[in-house]
Amino acid sequence: MNAQLLFLFKSLFWMLVFLGRPTTQQQHRQQQHGVKLGSILKGNAFTTVWNAPTELCSKRYNISLDLNIFDIVINPNECFCGDNMTIFYHTQLGYYPYIDEHGALKNGGVPQSGDLVGHLDKAREDIRAKIKGKDFEGLAVIDWEEWRPQWSRNWGKKDEYRKESKTKVKHAHPSWPEDLVAKEAQKEFDKSARDFMEQTARVGQSERPGGLWGYYLFPDCYNYDYNKTGPEYTGQCPDVERVRNDQLLWLWNSSTALYPSIYLERPLKSTKYVRKFVHHRVKEAMRVASMPKPGSIIPVLVYARIVYTYTLDFLSQVDLMHSVGETVSQGASGIILWGDHLYAKSADNCRAVKAYVDNILGPYLINVTAAAKLCSEALCEAHGRCVRKHPASTAHLHLNPASFRIVAPGASADRRRGRWQDRVVGQLHRSDVRDMKEAFRCQCYAGWEGAHCELPMGRKRMSACHVALHNCWVVGLLLFL
User: Fold this and answer.
1) Which of 192, 233, 283, 448 could staple 112 via S-S, CB 3.0–4.6 A?
2) Over pLDDT 90: what percentage of the chain?
3) Where are the disulfide bridges (predicted)?
């Protein structure tokens, strides 16, 4: 009898071990779902990155923005190129074909006339020169805006790329009718545009595999019709644009991060359209981010500005909430605050930027960053970020003012030594956690799964059968003893 029980015990033990071990297929699934996370994103529920050339404020006017005390990630010297983030404009990466403002064809003008091989070789050189460290784990943004990789989206000023493409086909086939010329031109353009963008991103990942590579303004929502529709503006992405984004799956597959934009024009200032505009743009980006690897989300870092475009008019408090706050609540990995040379053009401009950062932007960023972190810990075991249960809701990840307060930075001598966490005073109460649970759910980081992100990916094995076998093993052991 004891021999039989021993055999049963051993059989159940090894069966349990086998069931608890990920299969080769599951391990492959884990690898597939392993979305890259740059070092500035790891373990952070929300990350803010500063992408403005404000180092001149300190150098010229002795005005330091002290961004670090607000948990804002910056490059050394607050420049566009560094360990945390590097941006490549169209003249800085390879031989990008485009038509300049004078109508001159540069590097072939259109993608199908470009030298792809030469471009990729030059791109490798440019990447190595601009990102020195092979262990780079920051954001790598390619800003190519001269043409779009889909024929159908090159309207307005970008129609010149369609015209040049048709001219090229006409020269090769002068007897062809217009419809055939247009069809062939579209085919050539779309294929070559894809080759340039897809292979450039692949080269970037090959040269600096730890970086988060993607294209600025992709995906776009094309919900700019607030000036035309007025009170009827919904902010929704047109159906045709969602379909076109679906057709760009090849681009999402070749990207390791997405960089959409929510820049606000001055006519939107403090209007009811801001939230609609931002909401649907971020929503579309999050939808696209889930397409390449089902069950996983590519990091989404949303480009925003602290001013209305082409001005030094700073965002109102309500617009800050409807842009940054909306981005946090939809589960984006972070936000990139872009700015131009205007910020540091004069001492007055530097003082204005500093005042806005100190009094409005900074405290709000501390608020949402702390709220996102606390929600992640309370609901998601710190292995995921909180996102709205109902996308259309207006719930925000904000600290409850009855439970927390934010302490203003002290004298300038103490500012650089402080951590943003030290400026949040208070504790999370049961009612706060209850409110979070009612409005938010978990979106797990790469490598984790479960309703609360409590399980390592591939270990979701404790099924009813597994539990039953475990119980049998325990009973067998007791009988044997």
Assistant:
1) 192
2) 77
3) 57-350, 221-237, 375-386, 380-442, 444-453
